[in-house]
Each structure stands twice: as structure tokens, then as C-alpha cells.
Amino acid sequence: MSAPAAADLARLVDAVADRVPALISDHVDTIVRDIEIYRHDDVVPRADLRRSVQHNISYMVAAIRDPSTAGDESAPRETGRRRAEQGVPLPEVLRAFRTGFIALWELLADGARREGDPAVLDTLVAAAGVIWQLSDEYSIAVTEAYRAATADLLVAREQRRSALAEALFTGEPGPEAGPWEVAQLLGLPAEGGFAVVVAETPGMAEEGLPHVERRLAERGVASAWRLSAPLQTGVVSLRHHELDDVVAVLGHGIRGRAGVSPVQPSLRDAPRALRLARIAMTGLPAGRAEVAVFDPGPVAALVALDPDESRRVVDAVFGAVFDLPAEDRTTLLDTARAWFDHGGSADRTAAALFCHANTVRYRLRRLQELTGRSFTEPRDVAELAAALQALRLGRSPGRR
Q1: pLDDT tens figures, 312-331
Q2: What are the RsbT co-antagonist protein RsbRD N-terminal domain coordinates in residue numbering (predicted)?
Q3: Positive/negative CA dihedral, 323, 328, 330, 333
Q4: Domain 306-392, second-level architecture
């Protein structure tokens, strides 16, 4: 703008200055009337809204009167930050901002018409580009401040959720926050059962179960997660879903081994569930992208709680079997597992292994000779079951 045009625009701004307070009041009323979220005083208090409108319009007026002050964007940036913290959607924030510029433009246009001087009106028209550029710059400042504040809020939220989840897993939620209170803060139902999930991370700060919280949420499953260097750990609500449904979701896109605990009735059991989930995961072969669910049976839980003792159990029961060549050893142990899995029926075991029932009986007799334990004596059967469960958890004999 030329110096004379700038002077004419400044005189026009001065001429309408006494009408700016009324413009501010009218604009506050317009925002509350036309934008629903601003009608709720518990979201943006009316006094806060009025203060923001007053600051922003005052800055606009000053920048139009003296373009050298247009670089001061503290008012729109403060508005953007505040509205992000209050949870007002960005489109609604920008809508309120644009209507303020429109109202100010209309005030200036009315002032030019009242002057009755065609030169003043021509000056305003010539200055329109500058004014709307100022509008764009202020809108950008609002948007940048809003997005920066939103990013900070998201980081703080995720850090808080991660810390709360860690408190659950360690069993140390703090003196004033028990598992029920932590569940509320995490947005998890306090009832209905839950499971703990652990997954290997493929790299630093990389998820082993990518976007798992969002994918579960899309199916109505609430969960909370924390990410550390070696593991991604989560607690999953099973209030309205079966564990098999959750496992199916976990299996899509998995990038390494993952373990799932049995269903637990209370969040107080989270530390124990975490141990069982990790045991289930480490029972999988290294490098396999698969989900393993810990056997919920009491024998499995008993074996899992003492890794060293479970190795001694395997050694005591199957020591002689592990002295066999690998192929023979695998055949006999697979037969024993199948026999337990099929209720001690030689016929059903044979069908599962695609062999004759007499072959199954022969292998069981060999195992009886090697282990010194009968498949008909209750105490011996219990020891065989415990040793097989320990093997399923990856507990090989310590001396081999």
C-alpha cells in the first residue's frame, strides 16, 4: 500500500474505533448462537471466550491500522493453544476466527460508506488483499498453535497411560490409586475379566503389534499399552468379548512372538498375568511371528512359576528320553502329548497321529520303560503331565 492509502485506512480505523466494543459483544453472541460447542460454558467459559475475542479483534484492528504490528501473532496463538486444551475441534475454532474477520471487514465497509468519500472506499477496496492476507496469517498461527498443543497433550496422555499401565503390571499403582482407580483412568472396565499381552518389538520404539489399540477399539475392545525397548505390553478388557476374538485380532500384522495370559478376574492379578504371558511368548521358537496363549490349567501355572524347578522335573522324568536320537525322542514325546490331549485314548491318539492304535501303545510302553512311570498310575500320570507341560513352556533339561 502507498503511504497516502495507508494513512486513509488508518483514519478509517480510527473513525470506527468507538464501535469496536459493540462489535466484540456482538461477535461473542454470534459465536455462541451459531457454533454449538461454544454454547457449553463448561467447555469454553463465556468470560474466556469474550477475552479471546477481545484480544484477537484488538490485534486485528491494530495490524490493519499499522501493518508494521501485523507480525505479532501472540493473540491467535494463545487462542489456538487454549482451545486445544479445552477440546474444541479445530474447524470450529477457525470458523469462529473467520467470522470475526468478516465482522471486522463489514464494520470497516460500513464506516467507509458513512464517510461518504469515494477515495476512502477505494482505499478500503485496495486494502482488501492485505486484510485477507492478514486473516490467512492469523488462521495459520491459530492452526499451528492448536496442533502443537494437541501434540503435547497426546504425548502427555500417552506417557500417563504408559505409566498407569506400568503401575498395574508391577502391582504398585500408588498409595491413593488401586487397580480399580487405575482402570478408570485408563478407560478400562473394572469388571468382566481381562488378559495381559506381551509382544517382542522388532526394533527400538517399534511396535510388535502395530496399531493394536486402534484395531481392538474398532471392534469394541478396550485396552491400554506401554512400549519399551524389548517388549510391547498391554492389558485388554474381555468384558464383552471372548479371548479367542482378541487373539485373532492380535495375529493380524504381528511382527514377532507374542504371548497372552489366561483370562483373569481382577486387575489385581496383572503382575501374575504378565509373568504368564511372557512365559507363553518365550515358549515359541525364536523368530516366529505367532501368538501363544498360556494354558489356563493349574498344572501349567504351577510349572510356570518356578522355571528352575520345572527344568529339574523334565530332567527327572524325561532324562533318559533326551538321551535318544532326536527323531526317536520327538516321536515318543509327540505321542505322549497327543495321548494327554485326547483323553488317554489310544484310538483317538492314533487317529490324530495317522498311525495304528497298537503303534501308540508300543510307544507308550517304551516311554514307560524309559521314564519308569506308568500311564495308568495316577501319581505317575501327574508327573508325566507336569513334565510335558514344562516342555511346552520351553523348559529343556538343564544338563543337556
Answers
A1: 888 889 999 999 999 999 99
A2: 21-161
A3: negative
A4: Orthogonal Bundle (1.10)
